Amino acid sequence: MSEITAKRAVVKQAAHALFLVFRIGSERFALRATEVAEVLPCLPLKPIPRAPDWVAGVFAFRGAVVPVIDLSALTFGTPAQARTSTRLVLVDYRPDEGAETRLLGLILEQATDTLRCDPKDFQPYGLDNREAPYLGPVRKDEQGLLQWVRVSDLLDERVRTLLYPSPPLDLMLFEAQP
């Protein structure tokens, strides 16, 4: 391999990003791996009364209470199936550039694959889906269409206020004082 060819390969690799691929039913979706903080097995959750059906609950993680949403229930109204490949994926949720980054749990089915590709391969699909602004552009490959899920657009203001009250809940507040 010539030095020029090697440099081109490095530049091409740098343009690629890593995505976590998962399914909702038979449809494929992807999250940018840089937004994924941790992938866990499904854990028991404490439900939140009067929350939308797709809010699965909360759990304690490293001293903080983390809200969890079921992406299948949010997107198609059907809860994720309990499979061995269903995961609780913690993402760095930040609704806008000026906001604090918070952990958000996502219940994702078949979250076991990754894909490295150029983000420019994802193209708008021509619909203005205001009810699901988190569903981004699509990428066509040999398995069909893969849709990018934008973490920052997952929660509207009402649900964000419910899940992230001010000030943030901290488990240290719940410990008994001596």
TrEMBL record:
Signal peptide: none annotated. InterPro entries: CheW, CheW-like_dom_sf, CheW-lke_dom. It holds the Pfam family CheW. Residues 16-160 form the CheW-like domain. GO terms for cellular component: cytosol. PROSITE patterns: CHEW. Coiled coil: none annotated. One of its GO terms (biological process) is chemotaxis. This is Purine-binding chemotaxis protein CheW. It comes from Pseudomonas vancouverensis.
